[in-house]
Every structure is written in structure tokens, then in C-alpha cells.
Automatic annotation (TrEMBL):
It holds the Pfam family SBF_like. It is a multi-pass membrane protein. It is found in: Cell membrane; Endoplasmic reticulum membrane; Golgi apparatus membrane. One of its GO terms (molecular function) is symporter activity. This is Sodium/bile acid cotransporter. Residues 1-23 form the signal peptide. It comes from Vulpes vulpes (Red fox). Belongs to the bile acid:sodium symporter (BASS) (TC 2.A.28) family. One of its GO terms (biological process) is sodium ion transport. The chain crosses the membrane at residues 41-58, 70-91, 103-124, 136-157, 169-190, 202-223, 235-256, 268-291, 297-319.
Amino acid sequence: MRLLERMRKEWFMIGIVLAIAGAKLEPSVGVNGGPLKPEITVSYIAVATIFFNSGLSLKTEELTSALVHIKLHLFIQIFTLAFFPATIWLFLQLLSITPINEWLLKGLQTVGCMPPPVSSAVILTKAVGGNEAAAIFNSAFGSFLGIIITPLLLLLFLGSSSSVPFTSIFSQLFMTVVVPLIIGQIVRRYIKDWLERKKPPFGAISSSVLLMIIYTTFCDTFSNPNIDLDKFSLILILFIIFSIQLSFMVLTFLFSTRNNSGFTPADTVAIIFCSTHKSLTLGIPMLKIVFAGHEHLSLISVPLLIYHPVQILLGSVLVPTIKSWMVSRQKGVKLTRPTV
């Protein structure tokens, strides 16, 4: 299963490159009013499909055992949806005086506003042997919170930058995000046994739809001759994203391992991954709604598109190191326990 998941993620990365390349070659296909009709197929059908799929796949019935760890959940959610975006905002006040493309900097802020992903943090926590139940709970709960909090954070830090009225944005979010998610959960209750037996390819379905959203987003960009992205800004953003990801992983490690923190080594593993990972699957559709019709939407999306593979690559590289630390700490705890 881990091999299949890794292969799916590698193919998805290749798919992102091909989607952007395809948009560059023939942008007229995916622009608003073009043959694909993204103003309908993407803005409504594709986004609703992703969240209906999420509703079907979220195993909320297995989360009750993790509810008792209130302190752990509060730490992760506050770090992810409050500390992370606020820190990025402060950091961007310094970066605003640099020559980095302003829309890429706004994109960095959107990364900070995103909820945790449903899959990658759980997969990496499991690979290390950490608190998988806590990772599942916080990924799922964070996704639900993100549906409400992420649009509010985006509007707070960036404003809508859209011609769509505030009430219309939340109306569309409700109809294309909340309603499909709830329907998916209701349907899951009736076909749960079938889903467990057949194990439908939820990840592959969401990834395919997401590639279509990415393709149409970049079609709008490449069809606009006024948009120019310099390589210098892109390289700097890549370096900044890597630094942010690594710094926050170190920060969560230090916070969760300090004296009297109350967290076990297995808890720390879940905290490191759940607090620092951001959802591309939920993020891109939300940006498409909140920044509907904005000519720089694709540039705003670029940092999130970069952050996604960086978090998976960096997390995978650090799995052996984190695992050896966790095992050594657990052995140390066992050795210090008094014998009866």
C-alpha cells in the first residue's frame, strides 16, 4: 500500500507538470468560455466532486478513540490555523520590501491559511510509527475546520480580490464544499461495508479532478499577455518554502518535547507532520472560489503547488531520522520506569 501511495504521488507530481505544460501550449481550451467551460465544469462540478469524494473517504467513525487527547488537538489546530498564518503574515512584512513578485508573496500567505491535508501527514506519521489515531483525527477535523476558517483567513489577510460579493463567495463555498461533504458522509454510512471491501481509489479520483482545476487555472494565466513571472522570484520562493517548512518542523519539535509538555514521542511525530503540512486538494478549489475571476489566480496558487511536493519530499527524507529518535526516546522512557 505504501508503494502504491508513493507511486500515485509521483505520478501526480508529473501530472502537475504536464497540466501546466498543456496549458502553456494550448491555453484557449481551458479558459473561461472555452471548450471545457471551466466556469461550470470546474467552479461547480469539479470542486463538488472533490469534496463529495472527501466525504465518502473520511473515516470519521474511527475518530472517537482520539477525542480524549484535547491538549494535543488544540496544539495542532491552533498552530496550523492561527500561529502558522500569523507568522507568515509577519514574515511577509519583511519580504514586501524585496523585489520578489508580489503575487507569489500573496500566494505564500494563502499557504499559511490552508488546513492540514487528509493523507500525507497520516501516511508519514504511520511510516514513523507515531500516534496515527491523532494524525487521522487532526487531519479530518482540520479539514472540516478549514472549510469555514480558511476562507475567513484568506479574506482577513488578503481580501477577496474578486469581483464576486462576499455573500456569494460563502454561498458558493456552502453549495460546492459543505453540502457535497455532508452528502458524502451520509452516503458513506449506508455503503461503509462495500467501501471497506472494494477500497475505491479515492486518492486517484481527487488527484485527476485536481489536475483539471490546475490546468484550467494556468490556461487563464497563459492566455493573459500581461502576466510575467520572473525566474528569480520563483527560485527565491522555492528556497523560502523549503526554509519555512523545515523551520516549522523544528519549532513544533521543540515545543512538543519541552519539559512538562505532556506529549509522548509518538504524539510529537503526529504534531510535527499535522501542524506543518498543508492541503493542496482542499486549497486549490477554495482559491478558485475566493479569487474567482482574478487574473493573478495562478500566480497566487504557485506557492501552494510548490509547498505540496516539498512537504512530502522533506517528510519522507526525515522519516528514518525521526523514527530513530522516537524509538530511542521510547526505550529511554521504559528504562527509567521503576520496577515493581
